[in-house]
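Attaching the record inline, Q. Sequence:
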Amino acid sequence: FTEPRINGHTKGGIELICGSMFSGKTEELIRRLRRAQFANQKTEIFKPLIDTRYHESEIVSHNANSITSTPVEHASNILLYASQVEVVGIDEAQFFSNELIEVVNTLANNGKRVIVAGLDQDYRGIPFEPIPHLLAVAEYITKTLAICVVCGNPADKTQRTIHSSERVIVGAADVYEARCR
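Structure, as predicted:
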């Protein structure tokens, strides 16, 4: 395998888009992937198999913008599908195990541009793995903010509106709201 090089350096890298729900993470991921496609770069987009909120095989933003994706059960599956592409998109990264960190690093080290989007905090305000580790290794970080539904201030928290002690409940406006501190 020969790594793509620019001035002696690999051209791969990691871009992380993180924030609360309803802050535009998926919208930004779709925007970047569409620009890569417009530039005739080979892209592949992945999402966790458990995320079936809007569509089985598309990434769909809360604003109903969408892009075709490949649902995968484990982060390691991404390596199998991404060998022939230049740009890899990964949505809802918080639904993958910490295995995603190694997968993303491997892709970037192999010269791929990797764009990852996910929640940085859970509904309790606790850092949501694997995002904290990805923050440490990403070359580019975008923190998105929503609008608090209570007061209208910038919101970086996700408030669960139903009672459950489960950390992961896949949902949208039926289960969560954006809130400020």
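Residues 129 and 167 are 12 Å apart (CA to CA). The chain has a mean pLDDT of 89.

More tomorrow.
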